[in-house]
Specification:
Number of helices: 5
Shape: globular
Mean pLDDT: 90
Strand order of the largest sheet: 1-4-5
Number of strands: 10
Helix content: 25-40%
Largest sheet: 3 strands, antiparallel
């Protein structure tokens, strides 16, 4: 059974030494403070803004990609159920309807009809929320999609550290040698800077991406 706690209830766990609980407590405090300092936003919008800022600071990148969800986490709107059109079950629910919206969290694996950090199109089209999002993010070193970028603000790029399996060299992805792409019309960072090791399409990966990164102004 999944137990959902309010932000105030999460704060009661602040004495726990567990790292994941301390992270949750920190986020709960940020949500509460955001709701107090932004009275023009609804409670759900303030919590969402705090979550977006936390994602930006801890992950270094946000996206603006189409997504679907059973219900919007901000306005709670649900999609219309899909019904059987014929047969003995005509008129009965065939599957749950979905709401179309936007995903802001950059994830390699995604769960169908679920957003990690997002909302429906209508909510993210509200000028009050979108303007506040842009204003808060313009001072954060984070790689942003065009929809969230403010003209004149610093343009950041997230670049991972890499390590060569062959010679042990460590550096940034952008420091690797460029190799010609599979089609021959472009190039990509794929060669070790210190030895002949290369990452080839459909071949062995010799230069591995590490879990750490830096933010560089583009």
């Amino acid at each position: 059974m999944k137990l959902e706690l309010t932000d105030d209830e999460v704060l009661l766990l602040s004495s726990s030494p567990r790292e994941e609980i301390q992270k949750a407590v920190g986020l709960a405090r940020a949500r509460i403070e955001m709701a107090k300092s932004r009275p023009e936003l609804s409670i759900e919008e303030a919590r969402f803004l705090a979550d977006v800022l936390d994602e930006a600071k801890t992950r270094g990148v946000l996206v603006w990609e189409a997504g679907t969800m059973f219900s919007c986490p901000l306005c709670k709107k649900r999609g219309e159920d899909i019904l059987y059109r014929s047969g003995t079950r005509k008129g009965k629910r065939k599957s749950m309807g979905v709401v179309h919206g936007i995903e802001l969290a950059n994830r390699f694996v995604r769960v169908g009809n679920n957003v990690t950090l997002g909302a429906c199109h209508e909510c993210l089209s509200k000028e009050s929320l979108l303007t506040r999002l842009r204003d808060e993010l313009k001072v954060v070193p984070v790689q942003l999609p065009a929809h969230l970028y403010v003209a004149g603000a610093s343009n950041w790029r997230k670049i991972f550290h890499v390590r060569c399996e062959s010679c042990g060299w460590e550096g940034l992805e952008t420091e690797m040698r460029r190799l010609r792409s599979l089609t021959g019309s472009g190039s990509f960072f794929g060669g070790c800077l210190k030895c002949s090791a290369e990452n080839r399409w459909f071949g062995q990966t010799l230069i591995h991406r590490l879990a750490t990164w830096v933010m560089v102004q583009a």
